[in-house]
Write a structure and sequence with these properties.
Chain lengths: 487, 40, 136
Amino acid sequence: MDHQSEILNPTTGWILLAILSALWIFLGMYWGRKAKNMDGFMLAGRNVGLAFGTATAMATWVTSNTTMLAPQFALQLGIWGMIAYSTAAFGLFLFAPLAKRIKQLMPKGYTSGDFIRLRYGKKAWYLFLAISIFYGFTWLISMGMAGGILMNALAGIPYKMGMTIILLVCMIYTIFGGLYAVIGTDFIQSLIIMVGIVVVGVAVIWSIDLDHVYQNLTENKPMLISVLLPASIMAIFNNLLFGIGEVFHSNVWWSRAFAMRKGIGQKAFTMAGFFWIPIPIAAGFIALTSGSMGINITSPDMVGPLMAGHILGKVGSIIVFIVFFCSLASSIDSLLAATSDLIIEDIYKKMINRNAREGKLRMASIIVISGLTILAWIICLPRIGTLATVLFFAGPMVASTIYPIVMGLFWKSASATGAFWAMLLGSAIGLLAYFQLGWYTGSLVGAAVSIVVTTAFAKWNAENFDWKKMDESTLVNQDSLQENLIR
Amino acid sequence: MNFSNSFFEMIVIASLILMSIGVISLLVMLVKDIKTKELW
Amino acid sequence: MATRAQTIPTPQFEQTAYMTESGYVQLSWTWDGDLNSNYSFELQQATSQSFENPELIYEGPDFATFLSGLDNGHYYFRIRAVNGNQSKSSWSSPAVVEVEHHSLSLALSLFGLGALVFAITVGIVIQGNKNSSQNI
């Protein structure tokens, strides 16, 4: 055992947990009353404004990974490590124009699966769904585990209790309020996360001397300030492409693009990128103070909370606890909502029950959201630490979807066969690189293969896609027209 | 070749400033959206 | 001293040889002593196996430490347990950490490939955005 004791007493932990849980459930249910139909439940009425749009994009991208892994990156990979993590903001920046295009092409779309199906047909769609659901689900598991581990480490709350509570709370308010609840809570959560990190960061700068920190790094951890630390140099673009792949393909982001009012998406995602980019640095630099403070770190994944607790005492620990809870909740709720949308829209409605009506769809959503939560809970229960690393296998897979998505949105010539093979070969060769060359090459190779394959097919096996086919609302009308004629 | 001390301090302080701007902007946008009834 | 030293068990590293290409490593150790006693560990680092001019890098009750930012080279570590009343165990057998960073040329080629893929991606998005804003 590593033996590092918790920094808050369990009573305080339980009180915080109870207050936050009650708050989210109450707000989720309150806002959820706006969800009167399926468009409301799945897409918050497709009319989300700039403030909520920006906040939800930012908060969802702040996961436990940002607040926990950024300090870890800083401690392992130094100054480059923090910067490398910050580059994930490009996922949001580059998605901004895509969000505009998505809304333009598919005003009545529901999911990223819809796009792949309409644009490329069934073969690519099945593969895409497999990748996307694998990614969404492993992300969910990694976050459930992180919740349990964090609350255990911060406040001594037993792992199983912490993990169960955070999953349960998010499940309840997502079931009641759908995307309204998710976006509403995201706004408050993003404010809490940002204020919390700024307060902790400023207090840390106030109480310690950064010159001293730097001096200590020069003496004891010289490679952390080196511009030429090879492991970091390799991590930068791999991390960046992983981030782009995550955002571009995932229905978490597509549902937000659909949910925002016309003309909002591009602005909201761009601003979210700017607000997000400093977070890994602001949260990460604290890890670099451990040496000069003479604090022993037993395991790098706990360095962030540990240092905040040491430097700022109890108040610091309480802030850290709240920030973590918010960053976990803001992502878990989004994942539950977006993954269930994907399953309902793409699998249930399009493969199983084509004529399902509102009531039935809402019922199905409740079942899918609870099902996802229970499944994630069962897998999280044994606390197999290595399981969380499964998320990183998703790197090459999601990176391989980047170009089928981007070129599919902008190029008439991007072809279905090309998209299929780009995802298949990109994932396969990327995974091979992950295991044969090292983790820091997986997403990069996946993306590189995907770009070559998609471009090659667009050039030599070009399609001439009719953009009008993307707007299913017109197609659906024709369908029902035909049905009526037959009757 | 090392990142300089001032570079390190600069990115840390800049990131904290940028985040503060973020908080303020979110609040300003919120008020604006509420006023024009364009929240959602 | 010598007789009392035998009463405190010597901690042992869980692994005695490490190899890292990224300059970070977690050292952990085990100890059979009484966890309720007023114990702590002393961890020394040196650049030679003979532990000339050792540096005390950790003193405390934890069972692991995480080191990072190490430059290329061999680092030697040894640990002992200290009881509150100043009796000390003997030193553990040493652990050696070999740091050999990835070659810079490999790192820079991957960096270059990444930069290229990224630049093309940005290009496609910007170009696409421009065209779609004009056409439709």
